[in-house]
Structures are given as C-alpha cells and as structure tokens.
Write a structure and sequence with these properties.
By secondary structure, this protein is an alpha/beta fold. It has 41 helices and 16 strands. Bound molecules: adenosine-5'-triphosphate and magnesium ion.
Length: about 900
C-alpha cells in the first residue's frame, strides 16, 4: 500500500513526512490510535477524527490504492462486479511455439518466467492490473481495480515501456512481443473459474477488440483501437492503420500503431482544445493583465490560479498569452506531469529539451551543442556543465568536485540566473502548469523563483488543482484566485459555440447546462457526445427531444476521470456514493440510512469522506443532514458503475423505505415513488404512482408536469400484461392527459381527440359509464373548439343520452353544459336557454365545484349564469 498516496488522497499530504519517518506501513496504519496520531504530529482534532475514520474504512476491506500490480495469483480486492470503462491490454510472445521446440523445457520455463516478471514489473509502474497469464500471453487491465483519469494513456505508456524492456531482456534467445490495447465499457469483477485459475473476469467486447488489434501488431510494436486513441489525444505519434476487418466485429475497426511519445508541449495542447471561443472569465483576465502591466515595470508579480479539473485554468493562461501576443516579451512554460512526479526537475528538463529543439534520434553531442546554444549566454561555463548533467548529456560536472548539496544550490542559482538574464532583454511571462504534480525538487526551485521574480520584470502564473496547498499566498506580490464554474448563460454560449451549425434545440442545450454544472470540460465533452449521437440518428428527432442527452449518460472521455474521483475514496465510501446516486442528486441522511443498511459509524465515515473529497456537499449534521452530489456527472458515474440487477435491488429498497417510513413523502410526491418503482422493475405499481402523480400535479394546476408524469405512465403500460386492469389504467391516464392537454395546448389541439378517442373506445369495452361520459365530453369539447358544431351536436346528444340512463346529477349538469354551449354557437338560442335553466337548477356548488378539474376547466354553474345572460340579451330580454 502506498501510504503517501493514501494521505494525499485524503488531502493530508502535510503528514507524509511524519508517517514515513515513523515507519508507518499498511499494517501499522490499521492499528494506529488517536494517541499515536497526536504523537505523529496530527495536532488538529478534526484531522485525527478524519484519519481514524479513513483507517476504519481500510479495515473494513476497502480497496487500497496500490502501486504494485496485483498479479492474478494474488487475491484481488473483494468487491462486487461492476460496470466500468477500462483499457484492456494484451501482449503476446512472438514465435513461442518455435521457441518451445528449440529450448529445453526447463530453459523455456525460465525464459517465460523472466518475461512474466518484466511484464508484471513494467505494467505495475503504470498501475496496470495483471489479470491473467495465459501461457505466453498476458492480459492486463488499466482502470481496475482503481481508475485514473489517464488510464488509456497509462496503457499506451506501459505498452511502449514493455516493448523496450523486452528488447533489453537478457535471454538465451532474443524475445519479441506484440501488444494491443482497446478501451471500452465492461463488466468486471466476477470471479470466474476456481482455485489457481480463478481470475477477475471481464465481460464485454473490449477484451476481444484488444486481442484482435494485438493480432494486427507486427513484432515489437503496439497497436491501439480507436477508442483508446480518443483518450490519448495528441500525446503520442500514431500511424493510422485504417479500418480493419476483424473477426467477431460486424464493422471494420480503425486501428493505430503507436510510434512513440509525440513530445507535444503541454497536456492542454495534446488533450484539450481552444478551438471554441472563450466565454466569460473577463474579470480574471483583466486582473491577470493588470498584474502583467505591473510586472513589466520591473516589480514582478505572481498569480496563482486554482480550480478543479477541466474548469479552465490552462485555457485562461492560453487566453492571457494570446492577449499579450503582440507585446514584446518572452514566454516560458513549465509543465508538471502525472507520470513524472518523482523525477527531479522534470518540468525544467522538459522545458529546456523542447526549447533547445531536441529531436528523436539526435546524438548525445548534437544535443549538447543544441543545449549549449540555448543556455550558455551570460552564464559561467561551470553552470553549463551542471545543466548538461541535469539533462543527462555528456558533461564535466564531476570534475567540479563539489558536494551534492552545493551542486544543487549552484544548479538552482544557474536556473534562476537564466530567468533573470532573459528578463533583462524583454519582460517574461512564465506559466507554471499543474503544480499539483510537482516533484519535490521543482517545488523548492519554485519557492525560490517566486521570491526572485519580486524584483524582475516577470509575471509568473502558477496553476494547480485544489488538492495542492500553495504556500505563497500571503506575500504582497502574489495574487491568488480560484476559478469558479461558469454561469448558465455562459455554458449555453459555450454549447452553441461547440455545436457550430448543428441544430441543437433549446431543450437539449438546457439539459446540457443542467448536467454539466458549469465545468467547461464537461460541457465540451457532453456536447460533443450529443452531437455524435445526433449524427447517427435522425437529426430532427434529436433536436426535438431532450432524451438523447440522458440516454447518453457519461461521455466516454470523462469516464476515467470521474471514476478515478470515486475510486480514490476507497470502496466502502464508494458504495455509499452508489447508494446515494440511486436516491438522486440530492438525498437526506434520514433516507440513506435505512436504505444503506450499514452500521451508523461506517455510514457517517463514508459520507464524511465523500464530503471531504468534494464529491458531495453536506448541509447540517447527521442525522439531520442532507447531501448533494457536487456534479450531476459524478452521480451519473456512480450510478453507472452499478450492475442492472444491483440497481433494481437498491431502487426496490428505496421504494419500500419510502412507502414504509416516509409514507407522507410518498403521498406528497408520488412521482418519486413512481421513479423508484419503475427503476426497480415494478412497472405495475409504478404506473399506478405515475397516474397519481399526474392527477396530483393537475390538481395543483401544474399541467406540464402532469403531462410528463402521465406520459411516463402511459409509456410503461405496454410492459404490463393485457387485460381489463391494464385497460382501466390506460383509460384513467388518458382521461387525465386530456384535461392537461386542453389546459396546456388548447381544446383544439390534435392531442386532445387522440387521448379521448382511445379512452372512449376502451371505456365502451369496459362498460364504465363515468369513463365513457368523460371521454365523450372531451371529444365534444374538441369539436366545439374547432367550430365543427354539427359533430359537436352529435357528441352533445350522446352526452344527454348517457346522462339520461342514470341518476347522476353531475352527468346531467355537464350534458346540459355541452348542450347550451353547442346551442349558443349554432344559433339555437331558445333551446340553449332551456339547457342553462336545467343547468342552474342542477348545480350544487359544494358537489360540482371539482368539475372544473375534469370538464372544460371552468365552473359549470358560473358558465350557466353567464351564458344565460348573453342568451337573454340576444333573445331580446335585456332586462331579465
Ligand atoms: N472560459 C472558457 N470558454 C471556453 N472554453 C473553455 C473555457 N474554459 C475552459 N474551456 C475549455 O474546457 C476545456 C478544459 O479546460 P482546461 O484544460 O483549461 O481546464 P484545466 O482547469 O486546465 O483542467 P486540468 O486541471 O485538467 O488541467 C478545454 O478544452 C478548454 O478549451
Ligand atoms: Mg490544465
């Protein structure tokens, strides 16, 4: 277990040193007490509490962040099967059959053993999980058991490193391998097989694809599927192998050979884009520009930009750089990398290599001379030797004969001197990106740089994610700001900017705004995913309906980073996130407690971890607390990892709890219950609740909501067995829909006769008078509104007839209601007047008050009086 990583994930990087110095290993960690923590220097009670909670979770069998690979023989962390996006890598020895025939079995065993060891070791460095050795083939997962935002990239790097390591392996015969990788959604985690051959099985087409593209790889090469390529952007140079017909795949699959790292300067340039216009951020840019103006005068400034992944830190620095592009200045850029957090001064080395123009295949002395041209101006020769040593070039640093400590000081001095020299000619804009991945030595150098620029014409912009604690904040020449989420209008503009000419309806845009919570990266990826979807289907349909957005769930490109956030908190807390996700974007402690069925301490610890990790917002103190997923997409991701059967189980439990302990809530919000029942597969009961929800909403005049609920119920009907019960449900749903359609869309809307004609037909079949009466009334209204008074008369007569059969005053009243209205419009005034008299006689405000929700949307008594008055006027009795 990597204790340092565990501490970092908890946001307690400051204790790394203390834990290391006191030899805290995984075993000791589990047994640490509050007193121990105090002695370790954890002075804050809050921190001690949180650490103890996290330790408790570890002991409950949570998955731990591991750096070493878990080979197939070792027990993989016990957990349920899940849906996950992973990158699967296959590698295979070239010509192993021939090898077997040439070598003595015992030698062969050694060769294979050495090969396996190299694979496990290499892949382990990139957090790959060796799932299975199959003779000379090895199956590796990236993104399981723990996801990282860059799993696909890790797989590619591991593949390249593996080719390299195998080529250097010292065996009696030179070994060669081919490697393939593919990325996609799978179900992983079920134990397949028994005993020694037991493995964490992966089900889905991704492993097949990985095996097939491996088949395309020539000896000594790595080939990746298109899905993997999408995740690695321009980080690698690739050769397009075109669309390849592959066994088991209906469509040809595009495949790419990986040539090597591309040397793209920044992760932003390789993985993101600034193709769409910048939206918002005016204030931040203005502030940064002001600091630039001040810095140019010789009083250097530092701007610290923090914010969550994808919020736009890099984009902001790019925009700043664009804005001052026409001014004379020198731009220096340093990039930290997640893969080089332990390599000394990596950002500096990478910067110099890029600036000096090192190319693949340059000989060492060629590089030395390129570096010399770049670096030697103004510095002492000895300094250059130190820099050459740093760059691993031929050098005479050893001859300087100075202590390592002194050497380091001089190296720092040389680098700072360089900066000062450059700024003497022109002001310098320095951008130091992604400080959360900084290596310790660079960190020291950066401290010195922040100090040094105070008196130089330099603006230094440092970006980092919130987990990094920037220590420079208090100084007068340092300005910090956190980038916030974009506002709804800005997100809307961004969506339209990305969509270009593609027709995205306002509903789709609104849903993207809603689900991406103002994080530009999410906006970009979700919009692109929607556009791709639109491309596949009928464009117009997609524009008219918002459903594709929800159907798409989490874009593949965001999967890894979102899953990584969940995995980091350990499996116990992650399961709580999954349960929360089933409950909804927002849920209360009261509700999750009976659903989760876990010891209170564990539940609270899990919720605490989720809150501390910034995945949930918490309001109040348990048991009076409520929680909100910080991002809709995090909720979607947590939900998406659950297997269908498990989802159903959880939804069923929620429905049960709602009906049992929260009967009041279920009564007030039948749609909530309906949603969970439907997701649990209890469609029959769900339909009942959708109807109830629709009627309730209509009763509160929330007709658009009523329509949504009722239509959902209707959509679900087809899953129920045919029969009188289903017919009854359908009639009630359609009758309720009819009223809401009339209110929202008007009596003459074509939806109205559609709803009523079908319910009338079914009601006749069922022989239910009330239903038949209501449906006929609806049809009458529609004809009346369309001005087809002859048809209206027919329906009205039918209503009179239906009413005449029984003793229901309500039916009589409404039949007359239809008759006076029809007569009025047909000019049959005397007859109409007679019907109003009948109507007024029958009308009982107590009893018929509720009619307005069923018939025509207004009060029949008032209508009778009002129409009568008009009729009297027309008939020549203005005084009556
Ligand atoms: N204000 C904005 N207007 C338009 N697009 C934006 C804006 N901010 C960010 N973007 C886009 O969103 C994506 C993510 O932004 P960016 O890469 O700058 O995020 P970041 O904060 O640097 O994330 P990370 O921590 O992962 O480096 C980029 O493609 C970027 O172009
Ligand atoms: Mg960035």
């Amino acid at each position: 277990m990597d204790i340092a990583a565990w501490l970092r994930d908890l946001g307690f990087a400051q204790y790394e040193g203390a834990f290391r110095d006191n030899d805290i290993d995984a075993d000791v960690l589990r047994r640490l007490t509050a007193d121990d923590l105090r002695e370790l220097g954890v002075a804050s009670i809050g921190h001690r509490r949180r650490l103890l909670d996290a330790i408790a979770l570890l002991s409950e069998g949570a998955a731990m962040p591991t750096e070493a690979p878990a080979p197939a023989e070792a027990a993989a962390p016990a957990r349920e099967a899940e849906r996950r996006q992973i990158t699967v890598m296959f590698c295979d020895l070239v010509g192993s059959t021939a090898l077997a025939s040439r070598l003595d079995p015992e030698d062969l065993r050694e060769v294979i053993g050495a090969y396996h060891r190299v694979v496990a070791e290499t892949v382990g460095r990139f957090a790959g999980f060796v799932a299975k050795y199959m003779g000379d083939g090895v199956l590796v997962y990236f993104g399981y058991p723990e996801a990282h935002e860059d799993d696909a990239e890790r797989a590619v790097r591991a593949g390249l490193a593996l080719l390299d390591a195998i080529a250097r392996l010292d065996t009696p015969e030179k070994l060669q391998i081919h490697v393939g990788a593919a990325t996609g959604l799978v179900v992983v985690g079920d134990l397949i097989g028994a005993g020694a051959s037991q493995e964490r099985g992966v089900v889905g087409e991704t492993p097949n694809l990985a095996a097939r593209v491996e088949g395309l790889a020539a000896p000594g090469t790595l080939v990746i599927a298109d899905g993997t390529r999408r995740h690695v952007g321009a980080l690698f140079d690739l050769e397009d192998l075109g669309a390849q017909p592959l066994a088991g795949f209906a469509e040809p699959q595009r495949a790419w050979r990986v040539i090597g790292e591309s040397g793209a300067v920044s992760r932003f340039e390789a993985l993101r884009s600034d193709a769409t216009p910048l939206v918002g951020r005016e204030e931040e840019l203005e502030l940064a520009l002001r600091r630039w103006q001040q810095a140019k005068t010789g009083e250097g400034r530092v701007v610290l930009v923090s914010g969550e992944p994808g919020i736009g830190k890099s984009r902001l620095t790019a925009a700043l750089s664009d804005m001052i592009a026409d001014e004379p200045h020198t731009r220096l850029r340093w990039f930290c990398s997640p893969h080089h957090q332990d390599s000394v001064l990596y950002p500096t080395i990478a910067r110099i290599e890029a600036a000096a123009g090192f190319a693949r295949g340059d000989a060492a002395d060629q590089r030395r001379s390129k570096a010399h041209t770049l670096l030697s101006s103004g510095g002492a020769d000895d300094d250059f030797e130190l820099l050459a040593e740093l760059l691993s070039l031929p050098n005479a640093a050893a001859a300087l004969n100075i202590s390592p400590q002194r050497k380091r000081e001089r190296l720092f001095e040389a680098l700072l001197h360089q900066l000062a020299e450059l700024s003497r000619h022109k002001p310098v804009l320095g951008v130091f990106e992604d400080a959360h991945w900084i290596d310790p030595t660079s960190r020291e150098l950066l401290d010195l740089m922040v100090e040094r620029v105070k008196h130089l014409p330099v603006l230094l912009v440092i970006t980092f994610r919130p987990e990094f604690q920037a220590p420079w904040g208090g100084q007068p020449h340092v300005t910090s700001f956190a980038l916030n989420r974009l506002g709804g209008r800005e997100v809307g503009a961004l969506v339209l900017g990305i969509a270009g000419n593609a027709p995205l309806g306002s509903e789709v845009v609104a849903e993207i705004v809603e689900r991406t919570d103002g994080v530009p990266l999410f906006v970009e990826e979700l919009t692109k995913a929607v556009l791709e979807h639109v491309g596949q289907e009928d464009r117009l349909a997609a524009v008219l309906s918002a459903s594709p957005v929800s159907a798409l769930a989490v874009p593949a490109t965001l999967h890894a980073s979102l899953t990584a956030r969940l995995d980091r908190i350990g499996s116990a807390a992650r399961e709580i996130a999954q349960i929360g996700a089933v409950l909804g974007r927002e849920f209360s402690y009261e509700l999750i407690e009976p659903v989760a069925q876990r010891p209170e301490a564990e539940l609270r610890a899990g919720l605490g971890l989720l809150t501390d990790a910034g995945l949930l917002f918490c309001r109040g103190v348990p048991p009076q607390s409520s929680y909100l997923f910080k991002h809709a997409l995090v909720q979607d991701t947590a939900y998406g990892t659950l297997l269908r059967t498990r989802r159903q189980e959880l939804h069923a439990r929620v429905a049960e709890v709602l009906q049992g302990d929260f009967a009041d809530l279920a009564e007030r919000q039948p749609e909530l219950l309906a949603h969970h029942l439907q997701a649990a597969g209890a469609n029959d009961r769900a339909v009942e609740q959708w109807l109830k929800a629709g009627q309730r909403a209509a009763g509160k005049l929330a007709h658009p909501e009523a329509i949504a609920h009722l239509e959902r119920g209707l959509a679900l009907l087809s899953t129920l067995p045919e029969g009188p019960e289903r017919d009854d449900r359908e009639i009630e749903l359609r009758l309720a829909l009819g009223v809401s359609y009339i209110t929202v869309r008007g009596m003459s809307s074509p939806s109205v006769p559609e709803a009523y004609a079908r319910s009338r037909e079914l009601a006749e079949k069922r022989g239910n008078e009330r239903q038949r009466f209501q449906a006929t009334f609806g049809l009458w209204q529609n004809k009346g509104a369309l001005g087809i008074t002859r048809d209206a008369r027919v329906f009205s007569n039918e209503l009179l007839q239906l009413a005449g059969r029984g003793k229901n005053d309500g039916f009589h009243l409404q039949a007359h209601h239809s008759a006076w209205t029809t007569g009025f419009f047909r000019g049959e005034l005397t007859e109409a007047r007679a019907h109003t008299i009948e109507g007024s006689r029958l009308y009982d405000p107590e009893e018929h008050h509720s009619h307005r929700f069923i018939y025509g949307g207004h009060d029949p008594g008032a209508c009778a009086v009002y129409t009568a008055a008009q009729l009297d006027w027309f008939l020549g009795f203005p005084d009556r």
